[in-house]
Amino acid sequence: MLFLPKVYVVCSKCLRLFDKKKLIDEKGRLECPYCGNTKFVDSFGGAILILDPEKSIIAKKINKSEKGIFALGLE
Length: 75
Ligand SMILES: [Zn+2]
Fold this sequence. Notes:
- It is a single chain.
- 15% of the residues are buried.
- By secondary structure, the chain is α+β, with helices and mostly antiparallel strands.
- Strand 1 and strand 2 form a beta hairpin.
- It contains 2 helices and 5 strands; from the N terminus they run E-E-H-E-E-H-E.
- The structure holds zinc ion.
């Protein structure tokens, strides 16, 4: 099981998971490097890692075709 401390935030648009501190360090503010969204949530049910979207049933289920870590069950 993946341990996710509170410092992780999720892009509310593309659902990618980011290290909050790292993201602010890199961009100077909270901005999604993938979709440019600036709305983030820090409350979510869990996350999945997609390594091979072509073969991932979960990737298809949540309509993702890229690699990455995505949040599930946003509150
Ligand atoms: Zn995004």
